[in-house]
Amino acid sequence: MTQAQLGVLIGGIVPALLFGISGICQKWSNQHGISTGAYLVSIGIGVLCVGVVLCMYNSEQQFSTASVAPAIALGAFWGLGILLVAIAISKYGARLSVLAPLYNMNTLVAVVGALFIFSEWKDADLVKLGFGTIMIILGGVLVSS
């Protein structure tokens, strides 16, 4: 397996499976009447446990304000997004099978951000990105209608 293939496996395929399983856990938890605050704290405990284990077994412990601030912002944005999904499921009876494809349109935000903020447009195949964008939008429209 090449480095590029390994990167796709580790950074794309395995996380897709883990995020899919987390979506199932999300609906499961919200169906059992957890309050939104307790829900987010419980998720935070899970994330904290993963971080503590990694810190215990990873000798590289480097960080700075420039690296920690965006990580905290990531947690805040992610937490707010997860909160809204939880409210949609628990209060409005929204179906996960409809919500998941819609909230995974976050890909478009990440791609646009990467293209402009990190200048990835220099190496990107914009035609493929354009077709991929159209497919993502069509998928979201299809499942939500």
Automatic annotation (TrEMBL):
Pfam family membership, one: Sugar_transport
GO cellular component: membrane
Keyword match Membrane: yes
InterPro entries: Sugar_transport
Gene Ontology molecular functions: carbohydrate transmembrane transporter activity
Transmembrane segments: 6-25, 37-59, 71-90, 102-121, 127-144
Membrane topology note: Multi-pass membrane protein
Top-level lineage group: Bacteria
Location of this chain's protein in the cell: Membrane
UniProt keyword terms in alphabetical order: Membrane, Transmembrane, Transmembrane helix
UniProt record similarity statement: Belongs to the GRP transporter (TC 2.A.7.5) family.
Name this polypeptide is given: EamA domain-containing protein
